[in-house]
Design goal:
Layout (H helix, E strand, L loop, with lengths): L1 H15 L10 E13 L7 E3 L2 E11 L4 E15 L4 E16 L4 E16 L9 E15 L4 E15 L5 E16 L1
Antiparallel strand pairs: 1-3, 1-9, 2-4, 3-4, 4-5, 5-6, 6-7, 7-8, 8-9
């Protein structure tokens, strides 16, 4: 994962140095996605289910065909233990996004930024409690442009989260989200 993060960072630096001649490839976009979130939360009662359907929304701005920024709010998954206790996570993130256009209709992208995650724990999972964590986030994916305004995405995002345990200890965890979605370019 460190190599992927380093490669994404280097790609962003190279793309930033690119010229901004393509005015038609800049501006705001709005999107929505649905996917599968899989947090690695371990419960005291044993896990029954450790992934769930998640949804999210994204607002972005492309500075040029190669570089943009995104704000995203998404679910990161839910776990259910063997006696129906649950822990569910959500994330709000701000990332730099680098695009690598392969042709007029298909591009790859990489994201690197920061996310604030909130984990909500049901009372039946005591001694675990709700927690908030701010940490780096990153992701990668592909985008297919149906036309000038509409694009379809397939992506993977990695988030850091936490739950509080008795005694004030924070148990850090991670979640991977695989999603498919659509974006509309204004």
């Amino acid at each position: 994962m460190c190599k992927l993060t380093a490669m994404a960072f280097c790609s962003l630096v190279i793309m930033t140095a690119s010229t901004t001649v393509f005015a038609e490839d800049q501006g705001f976009y709005l999107g929505a996605n649905v996917g599968n979130g899989k947090p690695n939360i371990n419960t005291t009662n044993g896990l029954d289910k450790s992934s769930s359907v998640v949804g999210g929304v994204v607002l972005g701005y492309k500075f040029n065909p190669y570089l943009g920024t995104e704000l995203q709010y998404t679910g990161i998954g839910k776990v259910t233990d063997k006696i129906s206790g649950t822990a569910k996570g959500d994330a709000a993130s701000m990332t730099a996004i680098g695009f690598l256009p392969l042709n007029d209709t298909f591009s790859l992208y990489g994201k690197l930024g920061v996310a604030v995650t909130k984990t909500t724990v049901s009372s039946s999972l005591a001694p675990m409690n709700d927690a908030t964590r701010t940490a780096p986030t990153y992701g990668a994916g592909a985008e297919y442009h149906l036309n000038k305004n509409i694009g379809m995405r397939l992506g993977w995002d990695h988030y850091a989260a936490a739950v509080n345990e008795a005694g004030g200890n924070k148990n850090n965890l991670h979640s991977n989200v695989i999603s498919a979605g659509a974006v509309y370019n204004f």
